[in-house]
Amino acid sequence: MKSSKEYDIIIIGGGFYGSMLALFLSLTFKKIAIFEQESQLMTRASYHNQARVHNGYHYPRNFITALRSHANYEKFIATFPEAIDDTFLMTYAIAKNTSKVTSAQFIKLCKQIGAPLRPLSKKVKDLFNTRLIEEIFAVDEIVFNAAKIRKKLEKELKQRKINIYLNREVTSIGAVNELLCVKLKDGKSYTAKKVFLCTYSHINSVLKSSQLPLLSFKHELTEMPLITMPKGLEKFGVTIMDGPFFSIMPFPDRKMHSLHHVRYTPHASWIDERAQTFDKSKINSKFLYMYKDAQRYIPRLSGISYKDSLFEIKTVLTQNEGNDGRPILFRKDHGLKNLYIVLGGKIDNIYDIYNELGKDLGISLKDYIFLS
């Protein structure tokens, strides 16, 4: 085995969560390293998503998730103002048939958490097929540019002298005396006082090779088509609630929109100890199915143009499969003392992880200064 280098903290996974945890932990710890198997930070699940900053509207069937989303909304905006795009008209519509919530229930939830709803003009309402839609609302919801977030995080990590190891795949974690030892595929090993496993869909892969207890995850191979909108709808976003429907969201980094469909976005799902790999070239797109269904609700969408599809493995806790909740997973001493497991269901969950970690390590959140 090649020589070991010792750190206070090792973070496995250089996505949004891993990077933000490193910055938070730098308040207390000096020697921190991030190990990322891709060639760049934030290239997988942190990038391949709807770029939505949730304000609670999306979770009418899970009050806690809705409430925490609303509570974290302004914090995210304050942290990344240069990456936020609020120039779009964002709408939520309640379907008449097969929706799991009514307009009255949706309105009640928004009042309870304090998320504002506004009426829409007749011109916007006329875009929708009223035979299928019960009610439509304008909402306060924004999107982020993932590339701009990455750029800011890279700058902050460099300023705080956090070591970043790219193209480094971690194979296992073990204990050596009072330290944890992280072993890499290239044969090198590194030790740390504390290790944070933040590899999202690959958490169980590392745990299994380390002979540590596995967690109960559901994995989905998902497709998110990127499209251009018809003339006049370039600044429009919509989410149909709450059932086998769809969202069309701005995707600022590519200057397009993304299309997500509850029924057709997942290509396959499984409950297993590890995420499977996939070959994008061998996957048949389901864009046409998404497009035709979306057009039923908003006929003007007949003018959208398909450009590309982003594929990713999405991972959720099996306990939240049926209730649409997206809580954080935060485990301390998972099989080994000072091994932490972190999985966030949404990008703004990071502030809830700060709360949990702050309590555990004695870091006062009042001392935390948002990124410069």
Brief digest:
This protein is of the alpha+beta class and 372 residues long. The chain has helices at residues 16-25, 63-79, 103-113, 122-125, 146-159, 203-209, 287-297, 350-361, and strands at residues 4-12, 32-35, 52-53, 84-85, 89-95, 117-118, 133-139, 142-144, 163-165, 170-176, 179-184, 189-197, 217-228, 236-241, 246-251, 256-261, 266-271, 305-317, 329-331, 339-343.
Descriptive report:
With 372 residues, the protein is an alpha+beta fold. It has 2 domains: 4-45 and 147-213 and 326-367, 3-Layer(bba) Sandwich (FAD/NAD(P)-binding domain), CATH 3.50.50; 85-144 and 217-320, D-Amino Acid Oxidase, Chain A, domain 2, CATH 3.30.9.10. Helices cover 23% and strands 32% of the residues. It has 8 helices and 20 strands. It has helices at 16-25, 63-79, 103-113, 122-125, 146-159, 203-209, 287-297, 350-361, and strands at 4-12, 32-35, 52-53, 84-85, 89-95, 117-118, 133-139, 142-144, 163-165, 170-176, 179-184, 189-197, 217-228, 236-241, 246-251, 256-261, 266-271, 305-317, 329-331, 339-343. Strands 5, 6, 7, 13, 14, 15, 16, 17 and 18 form a 9-stranded mixed beta sheet that branches. Strands 1, 2, 9, 10, 11, 12, 19 and 20 form an 8-stranded mixed beta sheet that branches. Helix 1 runs parallel beside helix 5. The longest helix has 17 residues, at 63-79. The radius of gyration is 21 Å and the shape is globular. The two termini are 40 Å apart. The relative contact order is 0.19.
